[in-house]
Every structure is written in structure tokens, then in C-alpha cells.
Design goal:
By secondary structure, the chain is mostly helical. It has one domain (23-212): MOB kinase activator (Butyryl-CoA Dehydrogenase, subunit A, domain 3, Up-down Bundle). It is 56% helix and 0% strand. It contains 9 helices and no strands. The protein is globular and about 50 Å long. Residues 1-9 have low confidence and may be disordered.
């Protein structure tokens, strides 16, 4: 039996914590405070005097945690049987490759794909040479391209949830939560031009709708 309240606290992978007292923690608090104001376009902008890499790093960790939680609420509906392919509607199908362990893209079920994807993201976030948590440790030269790949892949989890599991999201009354999270994500990647438009195609109509409401 589901203990009340346990569903929302169930994450798919362990939450990635930003150490309290660190500068990144302050940035995260800043992001949360501006989000609270309700103006998402403003909330995603680089705070004055801050390092762009660090701002992108903090937000990437935050989006990983959000998607982790959102997907965690619907894992029981996303199964080998219900989702034998990782898709976002009939026109988009994703095959997994991480370039190291799996070089040639493989077809796999959505739960398997998302497990690979979230584990891969977690490994990147835990890599101190890519996402340094210590003050003064510089970001690597390839940080931006790593962040772009992470965000491109996280987008696919939103796309799968919207296309294949939105009815479950509605039943769980999570749609406001999903929409707010996705809108924040989209405004963020648009602000810094982090995901190629072609990659966003599966949710293009929704993205346009979210954007037009906000002008």
C-alpha cells in the first residue's frame, strides 16, 4: 500500500545535493527566490556578476532533480510492456548510446532508456572534473558542450512523459507541477541557446503555447 505523501518524495535516482554553504548553494537559493516571483523569463537570466558555467551547472543539477522526481511519480506506468520503445509520440523514437560503454545506438524500452540516461547524467554530475563543487576549481573547457548534451537528453524524458504518460500525470494531479518545471526548463535553454531547435520538435506546439502565454 502507498503510504500517503510517499509518492511525491519518491525519486527515480538519488537526489543530487548541492553542498550547503557553498556558492552554488547560494545560487540555487537565488534561483528559487526569483522563481517564487513567478516571472520565469527573468528567473532564468544570469544573475549580475555571476559565472555563466556555474549558473548553468547549478540549474542543470536542479533540472536533473526535478525530472527525477517527476519521472519517479510515473515509473509504475512506464514499463517494458507499456513502452517497449523510447518514444515521444509516433514520429520520434530515441536509441541509446553514451559514446563510451555503448557506442552504437541501441533500441531499448523507455524505462531502460531513461534508466541509462539518468544514470549517465548522474555520472556526469558526480564527476568533479566536469562539475567542480569546490570553490575556485575551474570548469573544464568542454563544460558547455557537456551541459548541452545533458540538457538535450533530459528534454527527452519530458517529451516521453508528455507524449506517453500525460493521462497518468493528470490522474495524479501532477500536471501543474510538470508544466511549471518544463516551462522553467524551456525558458532556461532558450535564454542560453542550449538545445538545438530540431531536438525540441517533439514538443514544439507546447513550447509555443508556453511562450505565448508569457509575453
Amino acid at each position: 500500500p502507498l503510504i500517503s505523501g510517499s509518492r511525491s518524495s519518491k525519486t527515480f535516482k538519488p537526489k543530487k545535493n548541492i553542498p550547503e554553504g557553498s556558492h552554488q548553494y547560494e545560487l540555487l537559493k537565488h534561483a528559487e527566490a526569483t522563481l517564487g516571483s513567478g516571472n520565469l523569463r527573468q528567473a532564468v537570466m544570469l544573475p549580475e556578476g555571476e559565472d555563466l558555467n556555474e549558473w548553468i551547472a547549478v540549474n542543470t543539477v536542479d533540472f536533473f532533480n526535478q525530472i527525477n522526481m517527476l519521472y519517479g511519480t510515473i515509473t509504475e506506468f512506464c514499463t517494458e510492456a507499456s513502452c517497449p520503445l523510447m518514444s515521444a509520440g509516433p514520429r520520434y523514437e530515441y536509441h541509446w548510446a553514451d559514446g563510451t560503454n555503448i557506442k552504437k545506438p541501441i533500441k531499448c524500452s523507455a524505462p531502460k532508456y531513461i534508466d541509462y540516461l539518468m544514470t549517465w547524467v548522474q555520472d556526469q554530475l558526480d564527476d568533479e572534473t566536469l562539475f567542480p563543487s569546490k570553490i575556485g576549481v575551474p570548469f573544464p573547457k568542454n563544460f558547455m558542450s557537456v551541459a548541452k548534451t545533458i540538457l538535450k537528453r533530459l528534454f527527452r524524458v519530458y517529451a516521453h512523459i508528455y507524449h506517453q504518460h500525460f493521462d497518468s500525470v493528470m490522474r495524479l494531479q501532477e500536471e501543474a507541477h510538470l508544466n511549471t518545471s518544463f516551462k522553467h526548463f524551456i525558458f532556461f535553454v532558450q535564454e542560453f541557446n542550449l538545445i538545438d531547435r530540431r531536438e525540441l520538435a517533439p514538443l514544439q506546439e507546447l513550447i509555443e503555447k508556453l511562450g505565448s502565454k508569457d509575453r
